[in-house]
Amino acid sequence: MADLKYRILLAEDDENLGSLLQEYLQAKNYDTDWVVNGEKAFRYFEQFHYDLCLLDVMMPVKDGFTLASEIRILNSDIPIIFLTAKSMKEDVLEGFSLGADDYITKPFSMEELLFRIEAILRRTKGIRGGEKNTWKIGRFSFDAKRQLLTGTGVEQKLTTKESELLRLLCNNMNQVLERNFALKAIWIDDNYFNARSMDVYITKLRKYLKPDPNVQIINVHGKGYKLVVDEEPAD
Amino acid sequence: MADLKYRILLAEDDENLGSLLQEYLQAKNYDTDWVVNGEKAFRYFEQFHYDLCLLDVMMPVKDGFTLASEIRILNSDIPIIFLTAKSMKEDVLEGFSLGADDYITKPFSMEELLFRIEAILRRTKGIRGGEKNTWKIGRFSFDAKRQLLTGTGVEQKLTTKESELLRLLCNNMNQVLERNFALKAIWIDDNYFNARSMDVYITKLRKYLKPDPNVQIINVHGKGYKLVVDEEPAD
DNA sequence: GATGTGATTTAACAAAGTTTAACATCCTTT
DNA sequence: AAAGGATGTTAAACTTTGTTAAATCACATC
Q1: pTM of the full predicted structure?
Q2: Which residues on chain A place their C-beta less than 8 Å from a C-beta of chain B?
Q3: Residue B194 Cβ < 7 Å to strand C
Q4: Is residue A4's beta carbon less than 7 angstroms from any atom in nucleic acid strand C?
Q5: Is the CB of B221 under 7 A from strand D?
Q6: Comparing C-alpha atoms, which of B3, B136, B228 is closest to residue A133?
Q7: Is residue B150 within 8 Å of B140, Cβ to Cβ?
Q8: Tell me: the pLDDT tens digits for A171-213?
Q9: CB atoms within 10 A of CB A213
Q10: Residues of chain A positioned with their CB less than 8 A from the CB of B24
């Protein structure tokens, strides 16, 4: 259970998106190889073993569909998810005929993608290691699935956004959660207004967490936020 | 149970869409014949046996409506689904008067179409091969076929709409069921009023499910709903 | 064809979720 | 210390959803 990592092949030519996705998937404990075109992707696929492919449709050198059909020759079972721009209905449909298991249209949120990945792995492999969805935060306990923050007697129902943000903070407990990363993960678009919106949510979370002075959301100027919990001296 | 395949007649002049649909339906275990105009479609219909017709409205040689009325002369029972471009309200209505069972506006997703097909076959024939139609929801058990929600002593009969909505929620247990998808799947049209109607049904379902506090229909603002069940710790 | 019954939709108002705006404060750099 | 950008905080604006009841529709029965 400890480190049965699934391996993902990610083919995406956009450098920003690619590295972001890789980082995110790594953080989620998927061993992810990222390549920037279909040509390289195929060479990787021949050489290494993967449990799932994430292919951008529009790529230089070799597009995602062509790549998929070649991959299918080598392996008719491996799950394939296409990343595609909106408004390409027909193309997407073409993709299905090549045996894609799913597709997701840009822009998408990280969480969305993760969900699709997990759903597919659940179908093809067994259940996955066990997505974590409850945390202890000082004297609170947070249930992301139920969107519930309990502790100090009261039980606080969280809204979806509050819950998603807190979940990200928990995933990066004691580390810096980068603003941009959180924005892309939750709001998809990291524009000015969404950034301000996120600030508002940070304030809200701080208010909820106030009852325990050992729990803090610390701002790291220009970088992001860090959820820190000072351990109670064992009495 | 193994290979009782339903047979579908698909009449669609767009080559891309046609072949794609055929492939998809084949993959979903429907034995599908695809023809590119109404003329041919009729000849096929005379000659072979089908369980369902999927007719494009706009076709050369013979349009879908004309075709449908001719098919109705030969067989007054067979389910017919029209594929139609958006913005043809009146035409669609005309179609219904010819005894169409349903219609779906382009562009549509494969999933949407599949759901409609299954819904209709569910109504007309019995249940389809591998389709799930009973679920455990916390301490309830839901039988979609008989539209019955049992648990906590009482036995609640559900109306058709209640049952279809709950079925969709169950199919996406613990995931977000998108508002739009549900609307298109159940109400066909995703306009404002139907959306409000759906809200009313969510309230009704919540009321039925209230007796078990571990079962919740959580709203995801702007996205949809998710049915979450907290697993009882096995005591 | 009128009538009654349950299902579904429409209406009306309440409540919650999210974003935007406005202004205060803090950090960093110069 | 001053300036400029980033963050904190609160409240208003706006959008979506919740809930209940009345109106309408659909269908069975008489």
Answers
A1: 0.76
A2: 89-90, 93-94, 96-97, 115, 119, 145-147, 159-161
A3: yes
A4: no
A5: yes
A6: B228
A7: yes
A8: 889 999 999 889 988 888 889 999 999 999 999 999 999 999 9
A9: 9
A10: 93, 96-97
Please give the Cα distance from B122 to B116 (Å, whole number): 10
State the DSSP string of A59-107: -SSS-HHHHHHHHHHH-SSS-EEEEEESS-HHHHHHHHHTT-SEEEEES
> A83-132 pLDDT, tens per residue?
876 555 544 555 555 556 677 777 787 877 887 888 788 777 655 445 67
**C-alpha–C-alpha distance, residues B23 and B15, integer Å:** 12
Half-sphere exposure (CA, 13 Å, Cβ side) for A180?
8
Do B31 and B55 meet the contact criterion of CB atoms below 8 Å apart? Answer: no
Distance of alpha carbon A58 from alpha carbon A65, whole angstroms: 9
CA distances from B11 to A130, A141, B81, B228 (A): 46, 57, 11, 40
Measured between CA atoms, the residue of chain A closest to residue B219 is: A160
Q: Fill in the DSSP letter of residue A186.
A: I
Nearest to B102 by CA among B113, B90, B111: B113
Element (H, E) at B37: none
Nearest to B136 by CA among B168, B173, B86: B173
Shortest CA to C1' contact from B147: nucleotide: C7
Amino acid identity, residue A86? K
User: Which domains, and CATH codes, for chain B?
Assistant: 6-124 (3.40.50.2300), 134-229 (1.10.10.10)
**Interchain CB distance below 8 Å, B23 and A96:** yes
